[in-house]
Backbone:
């Protein structure tokens, strides 16, 4: 059996440009919708290279673009949850979070007829202060979560988070955290702004370092990163840099990436991984800042 660590997960957070920045839900209807531009760019690119991805989908997107969800499902991609309103988990109450994931799960399942088992929170916002969300995910039928980042930033991160796939002892959720690598005394992620801000070779060497260290890797990206013409909104400088820098590089770099590495969906990756490697168990109390 081929070593699963030689493969990667390709994940897309399926949302429009105005979801990827902190703009209030009540204002969403006032922004120009452009999801089809980024969606078709990445969907067609993946399809032309026979890559199947996992799409963490906003409930709002499932509601407004049901044809995208059906097309993804029919083409053999995996659908997963990204909450309904893109609010950070640590800004929600447990009851609100439950409502967000239930609504999203139902919307997607009604379109595909297939159970949703994986989730990623907006802005990787399961942090030390919102670990309760993992219990709620388990209670609502989720098996896999990708909401924790071992890279600490101004928005997210848990510094004691393991660098590999692990299982939460209390609720059995399998966590596939953000993939990181060490360079110049700092930690960097694989995907998103990290993929655009620095040259292709930066991410590529990070992936190879992880493969050499026997660590699993998940790549993440958003449709709006394939739409360089999307509106420029006045933002805090940090958000501006991570959202708008080098958007024209995303497409050609992604094409290089999928030619160079082999990708599978998250569920397929996890089922192979647990056959090939022992799953570390972590207690929630050990996930602290
Ligand atoms: Zn998102």
Residues:
């Amino acid at each position: 059996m081929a070593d699963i660590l030689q493969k990667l997960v390709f994940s897309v957070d399926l949302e429009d440009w105005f979801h990827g920045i902190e703009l209030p839900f009540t204002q969403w209807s006032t922004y120009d919708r452009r999801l089809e531009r980024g969606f078709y760019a990445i969907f067609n690119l993946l399809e032309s290279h026979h890559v199947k991805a996992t799409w963490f989908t906003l409930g709002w997107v499932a509601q407004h673009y049901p044809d995208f969800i059906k097309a993804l499902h029919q083409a053999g991609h995996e659908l997963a949850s990204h909450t309904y309103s893109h609010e950070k988990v640590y800004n929600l109450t447990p009851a609100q979070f439950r409502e967000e994931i239930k609504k999203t799960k139902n919307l997607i399942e009604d379109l595909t007829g297939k159970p949703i088992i994986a989730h990623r929170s907006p802005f990787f916002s399961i942090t030390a202060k919102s670990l309760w969300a993992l219990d709620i995910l388990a209670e609502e039928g989720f098996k896999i979560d990708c909401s924790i980042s071992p890279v600490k930033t101004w928005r997210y991160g848990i510094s004691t988070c393991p660098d590999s796939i692990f299982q939460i002892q209390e609720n059995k959720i399998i966590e596939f955290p953000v993939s990181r690598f060490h360079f110049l005394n700092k930690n960097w992620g694989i995907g998103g702004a990290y993929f655009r801000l620095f040259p292709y070779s930066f991410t590529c060497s990070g992936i190879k370092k992880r493969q050499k260290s026997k660590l699993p890797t998940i790549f993440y990206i958003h449709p709006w990163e394939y739409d360089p013409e999307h509106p420029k909104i006045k933002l805090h400088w940090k958000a501006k840099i991570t959202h708008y820098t080098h958007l024209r590089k995303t497409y050609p770099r992604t094409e290089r990436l999928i030619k160079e590495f082999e990708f599978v969906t998250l569920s397929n990756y996890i089922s192979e991984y647990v056959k090939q490697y022992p799953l570390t168990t972590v207690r929630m109390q050990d996930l602290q800042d």
Notes: Residues 13, 15, 19-20, 82, 86, 122 surround zinc ion (CB under 6 Å). The longest strand covers residues 7-14.
